[in-house]
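User: Hello! I'm new to structural biology and keep hearing that structure can be predicted from sequence alone. Could you demonstrate with HTH araC/xylS-type domain-containing protein? Please show me the input and the output so I can see what each looks like.

Assistant: Of course. The first part below is the input, the amino acid sequence of HTH araC/xylS-type domain-containing protein. The second part is the output, the predicted structure written as tokens.
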Amino acid sequence: MIVAFVEHRRYPSEFQFAAHYIVSDFTFLAHWHTEVELLYVLEGHLTIGINQVTYELHAGDIAVIGSGDIHYYSGSSEKARAIMVIFHPKMIGYERGWKIHNQFISPVMTASSFQADEQESIKQAFLHAIEEFEHRGSGWEMFAVSEVNKICAMLTRISDQKGSLQEAWNKLALRNTEIMQNALHYIEEKYNEDINLEDTAKILNVSPFYFSRLFNKTVGMNFRSYINHLRMNRAYSMIVNTDQSLSTIAMECGFQSIRSFNRVFKSVKGISPSSFRQHNS
């Protein structure tokens, strides 16, 4: 399932840290957040898009998603398993966010970037971090902070030793990221209204042609498909959690007719809304 954008994450406690295993069919729409996100691939491969570049990650590869980076995950039929660690940048001393493009040329470090002992140390740190989060024994927060700092410190030092620390960031890339952050925020607020690419580009003060290419490259799908996926996620939730009629749900999610709602729902979910409701009632 694709979920959706500025993500406002909820944590199980006031301690802003979370760790999860993700599997091959994990898919997430393009979004961004202040938190830092680290990904370690245990087996198989998965696809991730970060700031207009798509990467294929394999076992032993690591992705570092900094504060404000726009990213998405695309599910794969191949078996894959990875650890995702998400935390507020203040945990590593960056109260206002960790902009990793100031430190790394690439947000992805492949397994070949590490010596065997380095690879094992980083892998164990990820495993210990998720173990602490899942079991939450006494002092687990301090252990989690320790593992996160170890991972980030090792990645920074290894990158520095290999001469891959970034000294300057392309101004155009920063501008494009800002455009897309504003675009996703606007779409999140207006997706259930009659919005289109041309009007959105005008609000962002860019040409429709430029915005269309930038959007596709950053999000991994075109503008209309992204809107439809957001609407379907909302419809999915309403069908499962409310007794409202399908026509009411269609209107509230931004569709002008029940016919178009049925067509898009089936194309995205592979089942009609009425059948989906029957299966989940």
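User: So the tokens describe the shape?

Assistant: Right, they're a compact way of writing down the 3D structure. Reading them back into a model, for example: The longest helix spans residues 140-161.
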